[in-house]
Amino acid sequence: MASGGASPPLSTNGTSISTSVSGSNSPNPHNLFNLNPANILSSTSEENVAPTSNPSETETGVAKTKICVFCGASPGNSPAHMEAARALARVFHENNISLVYGGGTVGLMGEIARTLVSLSGPSSVHGIIPAPLIKPQNLNVNTNTKYERGPDSSTSETTSGTIPTLSIYGHTTVVKDMHTRKQLMAREVLSGGPGSGFIALSGGYGTLEELMEVVTWNQLGIHDRGIVALNVDGYWDGLLAWIGNSVEAGFVGEKNQGIIREATCAEDAVQALRGYRNVEGRFKLSWGSE
């Protein structure tokens, strides 16, 4: 533990969510409440209050921009991918943007978090990770490392798992499952100010799944935040081509083709979120607080 008291135990009964953050004496430093997994939008009751690990407003009283970055727990074979993560962190720092991410300490996940914390401090990063990915018994037998953790990761050992060090990776929230992780990341973005949204760096199956879920939610009218694919060395060319093919084949409406915006550098990705306008083909559905 970097400083402060011990972290609370992780949830093991599958019904509640615990918060574990290095360097905090508070039993609930994010002001978290139990989440309703069926609802990412409502904030009318305590169980649906959007949590925050960062100051919610800037000095001017405007809600701070929060961008959720989906990316891999691997570095990739080309150094361009890790450099893209560092470049995005630098742009976040220059524009006073908070990072929301999956809480990993290796690959692109660890690189963007470490870089931004080194520039803007721990309050600029909120990592959200499911408990099974940090439990000691869940060892990756192929690499002798924990999933989304590595031998060079700076972590604090607890009886329930390894928590990233606050001073290196920022704040971490441990949740019970993958669905809650995605829900909480989305709600953090929804609580952010202008320019908040989602950026996908390079990654594997998990990154693609996270990206396509927020795309679907945008199409269905569940949220109205921007979505950008940061296309490093053509990594997302195949996905963008698939979207075009789906339009031609009649499975994606032509007016929904532009839900994902493409950017090829960090500056353009952030600017794309600032200028994001929702497509005309979005479904005008009323989700209410169900």
Structure description:
The protein has 290 residues and is of the alpha/beta class. Helix content is 29%, strand content 15%. The protein has 7 helices and 11 strands. The protein has helices spanning 79-94, 107-120, 166-169, 178-190, 205-219, 237-249, 266-274, and strands at 66-70, 98-101, 125-130, 139-140, 145-146, 155-157, 162-164, 171-175, 197-200, 226-230, 260-263. The strands form 3 sheets. A 7-stranded parallel sheet has the order 8-3-2-1-9-10-11, with helices on both faces. The chain has a two-stranded antiparallel ribbon with strand order 4-5. A two-stranded antiparallel ribbon has the order 6-7. The longest helix has 16 residues, at 79-94. Mean pLDDT is 79; it is low at 1-54 and 139-145.
The biggest beta sheet reads: 7 strands, parallel
- When the domains are counted, the total is 1
Radius of gyration from the alpha-carbon trace, in angstroms: 18 Å
Second-tier CATH architecture: 3-Layer(aba) Sandwich
Low-confidence stretches: 1-54, 139-145
Number of helices: 7
Which strand order do you get reading across the main beta sheet?
8-3-2-1-9-10-11
Helix percent reads 25-40%
The whole-number mean of residue pLDDT values reads 79
Kindly provide the name of the CATH class: Alpha Beta
Any idea of the CATH topology?
Answer: Rossmann fold
Main structural class: alpha/beta
Strand content: 5-15%
Termini, distance in Å? 40 Å
Task: Tell me the total number of β-strands.
Answer: 11
